[in-house]
Amino acid sequence: MNIDVREFTPQKIEFILENTTPAKANSLRRTLISEVPTLAAEDIKIYENSSIMTDEMLALRIGLTPLKTQIDEFELPENCECGGEGCSACKTTLILGGEGPTTLYSGDLKTEDGVEIPDKKIPLVKLYEGQEVILEAEAKLGKGKDHTKWQPAVACGYKGYPIQKITDECDNCGDCVEICPRNVYKLENNKLQIQNPEACSLCSLCVQECHTDAITVTDDKNKFIFNFETDESLTPTEITTKATEILTKKLQGFKETLNQ
Q: Matching NCBIfam families, A to Z (predicted)?
């Protein structure tokens, strides 16, 4: 399995996955969205909330606020020596407080050392004159398979690598250029050219539009265009590296079980 990175930003990655199978590509996708742990608020004690927002909605917003940390610095509660009861190895504390009139944002959350709020502009609650919020939250590592607040990889998906072919039957009418929503084709010197093959969504509109049946579109069954975004709690590199480690460990465990 080879990986060729095509696009990389702090919030998004796109890469070509080669020499693999659909089953392996889907295993990586499922591991990315469900097995990579990240930090999120779990238990929230609200001491004061005189805002118009209910305690439940306020707690939901706190829980969905991404928290950035080095995941190796924390233990999953089920793996911690405290047995998941809560200690400095498996939990951290967040504090939020304020009086109106003001709006409290994610950046107003007070965190302990080693924990950051990557997006400080998420509005949490608006307070009017005389209103107040005071709360304390415990954040723990968790996995996306338990709740989406512990899912650092979002909009995760892949498609087969598209392959377009144009035969000599093409009369260069340009109908496929007009119908393609991804600008895969272009006419250059009255000659049909494929200018952006990887942008193809495999919709086959070009095939249906071609009156000479000169275009075929297929996908490579061993090559995929993979992409996902992050909630900024972890970088794309950290998420991909952790997912491959987890997947490799699971496969090794399965192999050892079969050999017993």
A: PRK00783.1
